[in-house]
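User: What would this chain look like folded?
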Amino acid sequence: MKYSNATNYALHTMVHMMRQPEGEPIGVQELAEMQKLSPTYLSKILTKLTKSGLIESTPGVKGGYKISRRQKEISFLDVIQSIEGNTNLFECSIHHEGCLIENVMRQAEDNMKEELAGKLLLDIVKMAEARQLEAQN
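Assistant: Here's the prediction, encoded as structure tokens.
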């Protein structure tokens, strides 16, 4: 099981955006440069994050993207599902009623989703800021 590169970039982008002064938009060019991505590719990721309601875009010269939800409500699962969708990772290929293998796989997936839903990006932001302060001292 592997998440797409887009999910990786989305998680890093969200953490970077959450470290900006609250309410201050950040441009796609700056976000793309931070991760060494093309702005076009990152724009596709930002569109998905916008459609899911995690961020909003502000047009214009001083526009850009900013977090649109309360930071303490944004989980890893929110970001992952905005990029990957909300489909099951495993589907039984035999298509029979009450597949025991599928039951095990679904339970594992439910456990993983529960774990990711309980992990907040804000915790990563706080750890990154603490690490930065530590490095400055």
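The chain has a mean pLDDT of 93. If you want, I can go into more detail on any region.
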